[in-house]
Please model this.
Amino acid sequence: MDEFLKKLPKLAKESSKETAAYFAKLKKKPPKQLDYLMQDLHDTVFDTVDCLSCANCCKTTGPLFTRADIDRIAKHLKMKSAQFVSQYLKVDEDNDYVLQEVPCAFLGADNYCSIYDHRPKACSEFPHTNRKKFHQITAITQKEYSYLSCCLQGSRGYEK
Model:
């Protein structure tokens, strides 16, 4: 698995034109049953994927933190929200709160999240493949393609 994770950025880049064309077509004219198809695919893949064996998403990218996320996590950690922000977050170029660095500070060596029950909404919804109106978030899915490839690679029937 580690060897595959090292190859992911290159593999994603090699197929980026093909992937971009596919998602452009999907956004332009989504199939009528797209949400149901994506939900079925999402369920099939995540019934067989052990995220704890990979945690690539937590090791290589960080979520956006909403004000509600910040307040909830700070309360759980028995910190003031401002202290949580200064210790763990920064403001990015889009004026969003994001992690100061990756891998995520809350990811343990065993790939368990120490704030799992209180994690940001972006984490709990990742990889966003089971959302309604999927065609509206194809840009997110395309951007996160290399992380999704990891999930697909680790699931039965989707071996690379």
Remarks:
- Residues 154-160 have pLDDT under 50 and may be disordered.
- Residues 52 and 110 are 7 Å apart (CA to CA).
- The chain has two domains: 2-54+133-153, 64-125.
- The radius of gyration is 17 Å.
